[in-house]
């Protein structure tokens, strides 16, 4: 039984005059503990598909199931981390990391202790009494990660969570997120435009074509890269080879779009 199963997902947007198909016939399985990246040109429906998996959008066609349970609305076991941290500026960092637990009605001493232990793991325990405007962008994204993990989701959906950060901070955060998810045995799906990020962090990369969005090709990431932290993976010879392969496929997709 697949951990996450997408069957024949399609998404069409209707207006009075037109019908625009954003996604067509997406069938995909994700194993428990796997890290999968969605990669493709702008407009291929990557973020739309992530919203469908989260239950925020109902697909026009097809189904999403998590551990054989149909997902038809936002689910407590699906965590969603976005490009912006969306921390509440009037709340302390401690209150921000506990907000998801409060909304789910499951805030207790055990869950609070778990959230605080996560803050210690990522090196931000001493910021609990601070406010978001006192933290850097990278620190805020780490807090957002803890807020997401605090509810103990079974799968994390990551929608370009590093795109607004400077390059050095981005690389450090890639390592931190990768290590944290592995240590806690989490399944994750990352949406990104960054080929290098996808290669360095993933077990498998799904490349999408556009107009409408379809699965164009799947790239398994070699074990030589998967066993390394993202920063180390970028230095391995397999990284450059895979980067070139994906780059050429993206060029082909873009060329097909213009024909």
Automatic annotation (TrEMBL):
Keyword terms, alphabetized: ATP-binding, Nucleotide-binding, Transport
Domain ABC transporter: 4-235
Classification via SMART domains: AAA
Keyword Transport annotated: yes
SUPFAM superfamilies: P-loop containing nucleoside triphosphate hydrolases
Alphabetized GO MF terms: ATP binding; ATP hydrolysis activity
Gene3D superfamilies tied to this protein: P-loop containing nucleotide triphosphate hydrolases
Domain of life: Bacteria
InterPro entries, per the entry: AAA+_ATPase, ABC_transporter-like_ATP-bd, ABC_transporter-like_CS, ABC_transporter_ATP-bind, P-loop_NTPase
Pfam family, one: ABC_tran
Name this protein carries in UniProt: Spermidine/putrescine ABC transporter ATP-binding protein
Organism: Fictibacillus enclensis
Record lineage: Bacteria, Bacillati, Bacillota, Bacilli, Bacillales
